[in-house]
Amino acid sequence: DPADSPHSSPSASSTPQSPVLPWEVIERAIDLCAGDKATLCALALTCSHLHPRSLFVLFTNVDIQSQDQLMKFHDAVQAAPHLQSVVQSLSFPWDNFSPFSLLSILPGLRHVTFDGISSVNTDDRQLSQLTPLGGRQFAAGLRSLTIRRASFPMPIAFLNFISTF
């Protein structure tokens, strides 16, 4: 009789279970990875249950280092509109890419950091794009604006730039 055999497999009721962590602990562990993009990407790809939280953390505070990353980020939020409202903080270099179309589709944006603004790309045509028809500001929820390494030809250019926010 196989049931009496010393080599029989254990019944389903005696099979050891993997430890189960409360979902809050798992979310907290993902939150603690906020500064590690590679880990968040790996978590998002590891398990369908980890994917939403990992993307949320990855897209909440976005720090972009290059124009190429900025373009890819723009394409990603265009392709996945549900991520647009997740972005709360965005930092990026402002070189040749006009950020206005990107900033206008991020309704949850609260903090923006521009890095490297020159007078070449702050002309009136670009600044007028910031205020859509109807005169309302595009970034009404913006709480802080940081500008690093900026160059404006005259103080009025700086004031015009700031007034758009």
From TrEMBL:
Its domain of life?
A: Eukaryota
What's the name of the protein?
F-box domain-containing protein
Q: What organism does the UniProt record list as the source?
A: Dichomitus squalens
